[in-house]
Amino acid sequence: MRFNFDSPEPIYLQVAEQVEEAIFTGVYQAGEQVPSTTEVSKEFHINPATVLKGMNRVVAAGMIEKRRGVGMFVTADAAEIIRNKRRSQFYDRYVSRFTSEAKKLNLSEADVIALIKRSYSD
After folding, report:
1. Which fold has domain 11-77?
2. CB–CB of 13/19 below 8 Å?
3. Where are the domains of the chain?
4. Residue 73 φ then ψ, to 5°
5. What is the pLDDT of residues 18-34, one digit of tens each?
6. I need a surface site. Which of 11, 36, 40, 96 has the fewest CB within 10 A?
7. Which residues form the HTH gntR-type domain (predicted)?
8. C-alpha closest to that of 71 among 120, 118, 36
9. Rounded distance, CA 3 to CA 28, Å?
10. How far apart are CA 81 and CA 103, in angstroms?
11. Do 26 and 62 meet the contact criterion of CB atoms below 8 Å apart?
12. pLDDT at residue 73, as a whole number
């Protein structure tokens, strides 16, 4: 995990995003335990309440579950939850901006499709 303490993005959101990314990329598999709030707090010198707030976002999204007295574990459908979340954000984050810039550059739809196809083949 890496945190940017100079970023305008709150640390608790960075915690949530880091855990989500680690699950999505397979660092933590379904059923595996993720680092505890205390472990993350101590390793990265982050307030435990801040780490907990980030972890609770991941719990609320159904990606990890808390087991009292044992720890937090990746849920069976966590990767699919993340995939669906990212798909729903894909248009707003990438496609909309991409097409807006393409229009500013007077690129035709055919030009844009050709660029996408070229990128897929790279």
Report:
1. Arc Repressor Mutant, subunit A (1.10.10)
2. no
3. 11-77, 79-121
4. -130, 150
5. 999 999 999 999 999 99
6. 96
7. 9-77
8. 36
9. 18
10. 33
11. no
12. 98
